[in-house]
Write a structure and sequence with these properties.
Number of strands of chain A: 20
Helix content of chain A: 25-40%
Order of helices and strands of chain B: HEEEEHEHHEEHEEEHEEHEEHEEH
Shape of chain B: globular
Radius of gyration of chain A: 23 Å
Distance between the termini of chain A: 11 Å
Structural class of chain B: alpha+beta
Largest sheet of chain B: 7 strands, antiparallel
Helix content of chain B: 10-25%
Strand content of chain B: 15-25%
Strand order of the largest sheet of chain A: 15-12-14-13-18-20-16
Oligomer: heterodimer
Strand content of chain A: 15-25%
Structural class of chain A: alpha+beta
Number of helices of chain B: 9
Chain lengths: 487, 312
Amino acid sequence: VRTRRAVEPVIDSLCTDLQAELSPERVHSTSLELSLYERDASMITSSRAAAVCFPTSTAEVQACVRIARRHGRAIVARGAGTGLAGGAVPVAGDGGGPVIVVTTKLDRILSIDAENRVAWVEPGVINLDLSRALAPQGLHFAPDPSSQQSCTIGGNVANNSGGPHCLAYGVTSAHILAVEVVLADGSLALLGGVDPDPPGLDLRGAFVGSEGTMGIATRIAVRLTPQPPAVRTMLLDFTTVDAAAECVSAIIAAGLVPAALEMIEGAMIEAVEEFVHAGFPTDAAAVLLVEVDGLPRGVEVDADVVRSVGEQWGARTVRVAADDAERALLWKGRKSAFGAVARIKPNYYLHDTVVPRTKLVEVLREIYAIAERHDLLVMNVFHAGDGNLHPLLVFDAREPGAIDRVHAAGDEIVAASLAAGGVLTGEHGVGLEKKAFMPDLFSADDLDAQVRLRLAFDPDDLMNPDKVLPSPAGCGDLQSVPEGVWV
Amino acid sequence: VSVADPILVMADEVGSEGPVTCVGGRTQWLVGGPVGGSVGTSTATKPREVRAPVGLVTFEAAEMTVRVRAGTTVTELDDALGAANQTVALPGWDGATVGGVLAVGQSGLRRLGWGPVRDALLEARYVSAEGAVVKAGGPTVKNVSGFDLCRLLVGSLGTIGLLAEVVLRTRPRPEVSAWLAGPVEPFSLRRRLHRPASILWDGTTTWVLLDGRGVDVSDQSAMLVSMGMAGVEGPPSIPPHRTSMNPGGLSSLAVTAAAETFVAEVGVGTVHLSTPRSPRAPSAEVLELGRRIKDRFDPAHRLNPGRDPARR
């Protein structure tokens, strides 16, 4: 049963003020419009925003923040809304619904400096659009989340996003050189710089991954990565999940850091195959998608290492993509896996935890046991190379009690990952989804340090409050998900 | 009989009152200003010296991470990792400690290929200004659970917290490394090489460090030799002072820095100089945010007084 916090009627003066600074068509406040921005890509909802704004300049973002502040409203930044942890979900505060600042109309690539491998972009530029724009110059933006066709660079910065190729190339933080940020008081600060050691604390590093709680990025300097001269993409298939997981550790132990090392297992293989017809062996228990890149001769050596380690761990076949088309098809299978799930059950809940890579076998076994206990089907499509699990619980929400079982199983999966020495989230973020688990990973002193950092940026707790940290900033008690939230 | 956890021993030594400084190998001791403020500080206010504990805690080669106490020297750590053909992207200045290198945050000559020091830190346990042991980050290679305090600690010169123990990302030790040098224009060179570990330039000569698979190093070396470069023992002697500039501006250095000796890291923007440059001031906004963070983490300004990340 869903219980909502009473939402106050929109105070006209707030919208009037916003419309005066932006323009009426870029401030949305009807019931239908607000309902569209109640959720991100997670299953979490809480309450409605008071207004949804679409600024087209840094100055307009500053105006939104100042006006919201004057009206005692919180500010929630939002990109494409592909987040899976509720980070962009509006939560009503004492003063009423927050103001959502959508950055999708700030979508210009401002400059590309191919020589020095830096581009300045606005936060609403779509991840894949940036890489497409860079392709003619032989460059790309390395972080490649599965949602890269729709997620924004601003959202990547907020969540410190990952993706398959972060195994060798590093997560978003390693690719962000500088961020121009609108702070909680509406002022502007440039954090970081395109030179290697900007003076002062690494505020850039502190800002990346702060999920909209420290400000709103309005211009971002990203590091550009050259396309590798040679690439080998391989598909290895196994008759047991254990063997595939052991093979993952063995590849890393062989001194190789592949560009990507992904696992697809269980019923997911068949679902993917029916969806993309890439020739995935549907009778396999698990497949590994391994990519190595670099100079041509070194890539051959690396590919041989992968092949021999794979065979040592019982890979039935090692298929090497013959050309770019076959390589693209294999990746399409990996990246469209979540869409393929609809063939099995109408709903799914996607988790995101990280375990030490050497614990993959035991944690995967534990996840199967948990799913079985709760009478659920679980599938895994994940970044095996860095231990980043994505267990997918598939269910039919119309079945009585199904959602409760999904949540109970999810809690146990998180607990099992922590017990194995892992962490809460590898790339989706904490948002609303995982904040109740933060005290399981961090002591009161650890959390207090994070509160201090947050308050240094936003002393009045106006930027995306209720997210990430388990209590309102500065308060001692550790509450769980805010009242009224429906997870 | 239980042996006291060395991190707790350090926390006890730090305590919660009075100025305190954490000493590593003193290799970059003056970066960001001398500890204790101005010369001639009376002994009454001279900060107490503490040291971080030493020793490797856990190293699992298949994990490619290592947990090490911050007082351990980078050389000792690197020797231990070498047994499994691994290394870390920390510069191993003679006697420098892991905690010291992270607190100073300056990267070594391989930054172009290996990335900056700041990306090597996965988890930190530090002693706070209140004398508490605080954990930031987590032990896995990928983690977005909470705010990224680790990035804030790197380069903070021990003014936010004193590093006691860290988990670092390791990397495979390259199969082969080779330095080459010659009178070659360095900027176009960068476009022709795949992930060189380093390109250095002093205005006339270019040095390149190649590392990785033997076959790749030999292929790229052959190309460089055909351009007029030749194998050398190592990098040139590196002048003692450094500055940071937009890598796009390096080509004008030969003109602007003609009077002094310099070695520039091409593609990075770090310039090593024979004479000191006065530190560039951060913007007013960055200074203000830095001041607010400092006041929240160390209200009495007792941690490494005198050292200031804004004067790096």
